[in-house]
Write a structure and sequence with these properties.
Two copies of one chain form a homodimer. The first copy, chain A, has about 160 residues and is an alpha+beta fold. The first copy, chain A, is built from six helices and seven strands. Chain A has a three-stranded antiparallel beta sheet with strand order 2-4-3. Chain A binds a DNA duplex (25 and 25 nucleotides) through helix 2 and helix 4.
Chain lengths: ~160, ~160
DNA sequence: TTGTTTGCAAACCTTTTGCACGTTA
DNA sequence: TAACGTGCAAAAGGTTTGCAAACAA
């Protein structure tokens, strides 16, 4: 039997999803610290990811880099993403359309989850302190060396429900 | 500013994951009620899913049906799954390996989420009342017509951590 | 009967791999 | 220099689609 009390105090919709300017530098340093080199492709992928505030697919990252003048191969994008996920610097996100998306692994401060509109495909980040608390509670209660978690909510965005503007 | 208190009382590991014998019948009825026919393939997929207690991939469902003597095509399995997800009778689950999995959409009673061992690939269902509460709270707080949600926790199972048996 | 569903095979698309060349430390 | 990283192109694997035959109502 388990009895628990959670008290949360926070703002529900006021979280800022600004990009974290320090993430790229930290990731590059971490990569180097683990004995890996930072060739053009990996560095570019890290720098591109650092400028994103929510998740992007490998193709989107590739296109973004190319249209900014970078000359990466998509295979290198996939390879870099794999390694960054492995190092827990990047989080993989599956929103249910069969395309893997990736975003910087934020520290507990900037952690968010995803809201997917099944009508138009739009993805919105959200942050809910009570949910985060409960998740950490569940993670510690379950005896399972927890390293990452993902929450995806499916529904319809305001625009698609027509109520919007 | 939001202030909330959640008090939960429950068993963490005591939930039963028995298959729901009524799901198949209900799903078949629902399909018929919506004007669709129940040809061999769709019926067989529904009946197979009804016998599962956790998620399975399209290939696993196909193999399961074939080895039980059924003669479905895998395209029909995919088509049936798509339709069942559309009707919200089946829930799609993405555990991060690029393979879509599917399981009966349980009512709130039998609802569970997934624990994925990143070392051996094992998937375990879990149920956590506090987490479920928090999720419903978050869903109602966010203004987003919520229809489904998914939580995936990644870590290492007891076996892989070596502490196990 | 008549529109729906099915199975097969081909097509599709995302992701992975082989390999020779370029780069980093 | 020597190991590592990269790009290209080809291969792989999961999923979708076209189509004619089979089937449910």
């Amino acid at each position: 039997m388990i009895i628990g009390i959670i008290i949360f105090v926070g703002h529900a919709h006021s979280h800022e999803y600004a990009v974290d300017p320090g993430w790229s530098a930290a990731a590059l340093a971490d990569v180097r610290a683990r004995g890996l080199r930072n060739g053009g492709a990996r560095r570019t992928v890290i720098e591109h990811l650092g400028g994103q505030s929510c998740c992007s697919s490998a193709q989107e990252i590739y296109d973004g880099i190319r249209s900014a003048g970078g000359r990466v191969g998509i295979a290198s994008v996939y390879r870099a993403l794999d390694q960054l996920v492995e190092l827990e610097l990047v989080q993989r996100v599956d929103i249910g359309d069969g395309i893997a998306r990736f975003e910087p692994s934020h520290g507990s401060g900037d952690h968010h989850h995803h809201l997917v509109c099944d009508d138009c495909g739009r993805v919105d980040p959200f942050f809910d302190p009570a949910l985060e608390q409960a998740l950490e509670g569940a993670a510690s209660r379950l005896d399972y060396g927890m390293r990452a978690h993902e929450i995806v909510l499916h529904g319809s965005c305001a625009d698609c429900r027509g109520g919007g503007a």
